[in-house]
Amino acid sequence: MHLDHSHDTTTVVSADAARSDGTRRALRIGLGGPVGSGKTATVAALCRALRDTYSIAVVTNDIYTREDAEFLLRNAVLPPERIQAVETGACPHTAIRDDISANLEAVEDLEDAVGPLDLILVESGGDNLTATFSKGLVDAQVFVIDVAGGDDIPRKGGPGVTTADLLVVNKTDLAPYVGSDLGRMAHDARTQRGELPVAFTSLTSGEGVKPVADWVRGQLAAWSA
Amino acid sequence: MDTTSPHGASPGAARAALLVLADGRFPAGGHAHSGGAEAAVKAGRIRDATDLATFCRGRLHTTGLTSAALAAAAAVGADPLVLDEAADARTPSPALRTTARKLGRQLMRAARAAWPCDALDALAAARPRGAHQPVVLGVTAHAAGLGPEDAAHCVAYESVGGPATAVVRLLGLDPFEATAVLARLAPELDQVARRAAEAGRRAPAEGPGALPAASAPLLDITAQAHAAWPVRLFAS
Amino acid sequence: MTALAPEGVAATARITAVPDGLGGTRLPVLESDGPLALRRTRGAGAYARVTVVGAMSAPLGGDRLAIEAGVRDGAALTVDSAAATVALPGRGGRPARYDVRLTAGAGACLRWLPEALISARGSDLRMTTRVELAARARLVLREEQILGRYGEETGTLTTRLTVHRAGRPLLDQELAYGPGAPGGWDGAAVLGGNRAVGQLLVVRPEFERSPPEAALLGDNAVLTPLAGPAVLVTAVAADALRLRRVLDRALRTFG
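Output (structure tokens, whole complex):
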């Protein structure tokens, strides 16, 4: 008689690589970075580049709206049932790092609803340079900054710039206009990150996201190996 | 449910476990919820610390008491599925039922990692989309070696702690003032927890009808409106 | 029967409705008691109708009033009242009790539509409404609480509405207002300064298959589907008139 609940799934306690039915779950990649650096545009471009090859879903963590989810819906990069928004109570870094329970629920719900999935992109709400994803939530993370935010960001470091599995420096087409030195950014990034990769992108061109997409393909190959 | 907890020496004797469970940093999703405070702020009903105090007091004695008693009943071993149904009957707003189950599911994940036990597994299997959060909390409290008063305290405190934190973010309210509001409510919180625990102890024998059903009309009304807002800071 | 309790009146009025075999409903039991006077009034269609008259000045402090109404399988009953019920202070400041016990059997229809309950200054009333429904019963139930007569402070009023359907809890709600209630009842979480609060509950078996969607009825009222086959309208308003306007609109849709 209770109309609210159905009885179709069980919950896995932690971020195990297997789902409750024993099958391997999707690879989860987090995308974080400051407000306006192009996280949502990167997610959209990745979906377009990879959706014909892989089964993809997206979780967005908006600061105070569903705008990022709605941007993705409007741009029809994926069918709506493959996009889920998590509300973060004005604390996006909490939802991806300190209390990941709502995000874990969202990725599990997506796998249940539209799975099997190869890849789930978890986009953080625009936050500051210290926001990183919990390893309990994602398998790898991308940190997106842009040249317009200042070419000293890589030098300043911070957990996102220093430890992300991939650092994306976006909007390279704007470098001449905002006086950012791409060479200096690349050098500083290498100093901060050692061997960890850096991708320079300009999403205004159709192929702009290719270095990120190639990196994701590499991660997927390693995950399913 | 057995009478000894798998993680505590004797039920009700644990204390530090209560600090872990009641910690605002316990990763169970509470940080994204305002307990109706966001809607009250937008409606102009909460403008300062005085309004916050009245809001919290009203919430404590209504949904706080009701939820605390459900948790206490679960902590003394009343059938959690019966309590879950009783929680549904005490939650006319579908938005609040959804929130309670969502938070219950999130708490379940944290609880099973912190205090794994058969009772939590059984409830998770029976309610895979989440049981009402206070019910999960009561079962968790028992698993952690805590008693019904502990469970009731934890839920009663959450019922006011969440809104207070949210209003600090929503209004830029002085966090010291917000904390002072909670501190001044502490004696009433103790009373509510005691009343909830007494009712909870009667529930296994008398059924869920022995539990309070105190409700707050405005919380029910505004929760439904809030759930439909296109722009909001908090999930509820 | 009416008994003169040491500090107030104890009275229980009773109604039993059964099908009359001709598509209508008859009332083999219609017992008035003390201040609770029942009159059979003109019903509509298959419904028999009973109007509670004379409860106007009751309950006083110390009174113990009760109404029991049973609608047997296949019968249809409307109960309303001629005027609002005013809770008044009584001798010795003792609380009054008012207990309503309703049952409806398979295929039975009960419309419980009393006028508002007004809590006068200094009064203390504890009211309970307990409804037991068979799985195939239909119910329309309205409750209105007005806190104080015009320009008057409220008394203390606690109400509990408990509805079971097929033996399972469907709705359980307690409200507590006034000087004897715990703190915060007038604040932003509970009433927000409003002085009228009401509910309309509609239970229909067919809602199990197609529950109505939740809907906002203005700023201070909402229609919500319950976890079982029922909808509840919850409303607060500045006064009785505005409250009734909202509930009447819902009643026209679902009544």
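Residues 210-224 of chain A form the longest helix (15 residues).
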